[in-house]
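Batch 3, record 17
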Amino acid sequence: NAGVTQTPKFQVLKTGQSMTLQCAQDMNHEYMSWYRQDPGMGLRLIHYSVGAGITDQGEVPNGYNVSRSTTEDFPLRLLSAAPSQTSVYFCASSSLGLANNEQFFGPGTRLTVL
Amino acid sequence: GQNIDQPTEMTATEGAIVQINCTYQTSGFNGLFWYQQHAGEAPTFLSYNVLDGLEEKGRFSSFLSRSKGYSYLLLKELQMKDSASYLCAVRVYNNNDMRFGAGTRLTVKP
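Prediction for the assembled complex:
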């Protein structure tokens, strides 16, 4: 099992550009989520999904879109990048059938918006 | 609002015991998690508490008091590799919304 994979690992964008961060998992997990991590602020939930075709907003959804067409994939789209979106982005997945809902995190994408 | 507080930094000596505290005020509670994150890496799961009391897992233990909105992570027999950030997180509202504290950066010295 590859676990949770994310691409790219690093990305530099100019203000106003759009892009998609890719996330995939091969553990057949129902739940997938996107977080951003900024210094001194911890992980903040952007969007999450409890299954194919179902998505919902987290704590900081503005400026981001998601879709969940398959169980395996959960891409995050930046519609028009802004410097405030410079951050490290983590994708995570978990099985809703487990009581502890342990989340498995991908390696992260470091995004810089100039 | 949601508030999860933990100390920013801690330092301890190799072989010693350290306790990292976490206090929370959240709308709803459905479990408290501790994650470890080494610099430049992804968080990894350490422990989960949903009922009051102590959960022990090898050198690591986690305690929860729901009435006090308080948890701690206890690390025994510290090793240099334990130098990392430790993240406290609360599952709120339902099974799907997770809120994280800012993390405690632990430095283990020889």
